[in-house]
Amino acid sequence: MAVIDYLKSNRERHLQELFAFLRIPSISAKSEYREQTRQAADWLVERMLEAGLQIAEVIPTAGHPIVIGEWRGAPEGAPTLLVYGHYDVQPPEPLEEWTSEPFEPEVRDGKIFARGSVDDKGQVYLHLKAVEAHIAANGKLPVNLVFVVEGEEEIGSPNLQSFLVENQERLRCDAVMISDTTMFAPDLPSVTIGLRGLAYMEIRVQGPETDLHSGSYGGAVVNPANALAKIIARLHDDHGRVAVPGFYDDVRDLTPEEREAVRALPFSDEEFRAGVNAPALGGEEGWSVLERLGARPTLDVNGLLSGYTGEGAKTVLPARAMAKVSMRLVPNQDHRDIEEKFIRYVREIAPAGVTVEVEALHGGQPWYADPKEPIFTSAARALEKAFGRAPVFTREGGSIPIVQAFQQIFSAPVVLLGFGLPGENAHAPNEWMSVDNYTRGAEAIAMLYDEL
Ligand code: BES
Ligand code: ZN
Fold first, then answer.
1. Ligand 1: residues whose CB is within 6 Å?
2. Ligand nearest to the CA of 157
3. Quick one: which atom of ligand 1 is closest to the CA of 155?
4. Pocket test residue of 64, 117, 154, 325 for ligand 1, highest count of atoms within 8 A of CB
5. Domain ranges in the chain with CATH number 3.40.630.10
6. What are the two backbone dihedrals, phi and then psi, of residue 119, each rounded to the nearest 5 degrees?
7. pLDDT at 376
8. CATH 3.30.70.360 occupies which residues in the chain?
9. Which residue among 153, 195, 419 has the greatest number of ligand 1 atoms within 8 angstroms of its CB, and so is best to mutate?
10. Percentages of the chain per state (helix, strand, coil), in multiples of 5
11. What is the pLDDT of residues 88-120, one digit of tens each?
12. d(Cα 330, Cα 324) in Å, to the nearest integer?
């Protein structure tokens, strides 16, 4: 097949191009990387035009720009696919834990190590290489394509939804294709049919105006760190359930068939535990690890700050304490509703003697797909051809805040074809993407165009 031959013979060049992409530190969360983030958008537009897209442009937003690419030369009646991804990355810290530089890609052991390799530059770029292969080998594509690649996914996509609504006509499509998730296991291709939503909160506790001597004041002035610990201790009950009143009201339980499908996946709790070197696993009683991750909502402290944390001892009663808390949500919870319930509850349990402020920082809705839509059959066939094995359908614990909006705005199915792997260290030091999956991913996408 000419398209696949093209991908194979251009493998090394395609890898080098990805490296160039990975060298641009497009860290959306940090304002000092604004220029570099913009540079990544410009770079991508150039590559889109080279690959043969008819239109490619950088569209400014109130934050980081959105990259749009289009190819619309398919025969009458051919479907239009919208490919979504993101060119922004998470901050690389802690830097001292990286084996090689985060923005200087290095291949070791068949893995491309770099910030953004798997999340999501490698997974975006393999789509573009699939397009290039079709155009180079056949002069055309069997489908119409629109790329929407944003620079703010890692900060909650604050400007994308309004862009999609305003450009609904231009972006109209029959299906949305996203590669920003992981395969269930090596060599086991996967279609993700559920993502959790997110409500991300900050709790700020203020006590006295400044830090105080813990001997002269301790015991008489309410300590904000103690107060915050009390609040956090009341966010779960003794069975691992979230204690925010009404938290579970809208949770849709898995059907018996869905539970069975989860049970049938090849998964070992012990391997999962050993993979992260945790002393033991924990969570909500009555649910398996996979159910806890994919089908149950959760609440976790993501950050804590208060008092003296330097070397040795300092006897001090801190003036303030702060916690960042994320809640991962499942259908049919609504992140705004959960944010309100959280704020109400934390205010209610706030100890006397301190002031407590609670703020929602960002959120996204949970999503799940109906895998009976015909496009899932085509996707499964393409993955099977590329990987030699039929894919599994999985629910993932992470979030892509815009997915639910895509489904709603365009009334189109969203198909998540992920080429990451367990242990890929996304958001952590030493993030990697498998070289093999980068190439096989491009082949699978190229085949998918033909299937459609
Ligand atoms: N690629 C991830 C989403 C993901 C993670 C899917 C794990 C499946 C498994 C994405 O880039 C991401 O990190 N999303 C954030 C969203 C947040 C910043 C609003 C997340 O899940 O924390
Ligand atoms: Zn991410």
1. 119-120, 153-154, 156, 180-182, 198, 362, 364, 396, 398-401
2. 1
3. 18
4. 154
5. 2-195+366-451
6. -125, 85
7. 94
8. 197-251+297-364
9. 153
10. 35, 25, 40
11. 999 999 999 999 999 999 999 999 999 999 999
12. 20
Integer-rounded Cα radius of gyration of the chain? 23
CA of 415 to the centre of ligand 2 (A): 18
Helices (DSSP H) in 350-392: which residue ranges? 374-387
2-195+366-451: CATH topology is Aminopeptidase (3.40.630)
pTM confidence score: 0.93
Check residue 370 and give its pLDDT.
86
DSSP three-state, residue 248: coil
- Of 202, 444, 384, the C-alpha closest to 303 is 202
Give residue 60's pLDDT: 98
Assigned CATH class of 197-251+297-364: alpha beta
Q: What is the pLDDT of residues 269-323, one digit of tens each?
A: 999 999 999 999 999 999 999 999 999 999 999 999 999 999 999 999 999 999 9
